[in-house]
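Ligand-bound model needed. flavin mononucleotide.
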Amino acid sequence: MNENRNLIDIKENPYNLFNHWFAKAKLEEINDPNAMNLATVSNDLQPSSRMVLLKSFNVSGFIFYTNLKSKKGESIKNNAQVALNFYWKSLQRQVRIEGKAKIVDKEEANQYFDTRPDESKISAWASKQSSELKSREELENRVKYFNNKFTGTKIPRPLNWIGYRVEPKLFEFWKHMPFRLHDRVEFTKKDNNWLGKKLYP
Ligand SMILES: Cc1cc2nc3c(=O)[nH]c(=O)nc-3n(C[C@H](O)[C@H](O)[C@H](O)COP(=O)(O)O)c2cc1C
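Prediction:
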């Protein structure tokens, strides 16, 4: 049982470890290695989760983009504590993150918005994310409307389309091991240092 263990080192820095695992996922995970589950808890304590895409990360946090007025946006407004979960099936690895979501600077959101294809920019204008849609036609008409509106001009970022940075206070790295004796390391922050400890699988 002790052979080929290659266990996670509890002395690792969780950001370096994430960087390392994410680089491997980008090489080996066939689809959307940057897909992550985002869990929020609403005002009435109802948890809710959905997938979003990680757009960048560094020691200040993990950034995704969405609509401020969406269900998740409304939840975060009332309760900024969120959880992220990456599952890389091809790697047999999972990373859990818990922390606080904060809206990114407008300039940073503008910069990222500018890199997107025009079609995606128009979709951001057309979608009242998480509101009731009465018919597909209604959405298509909104796409046409904003296409016309912005013909020949640079498409600006809709004010509701923003990024959140999740600042982690907890990481868990999980690695599949034979017979469900998986390797788990949880990192929590104490006095600006990350402390790692093993957890039973
Ligand atoms: C793989 C995948 C990636 C997604 N990425 C995003 C994203 O980056 N931003 C986003 O707003 N929605 C994304 N979505 C759609 C969300 O899962 C969700 O349907 C939408 O954000 C509305 O969620 P809400 O009503 O809980 O706010 C993605 C869905 C999938 C399946």
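The chain is about 25% helix and 35% strand.
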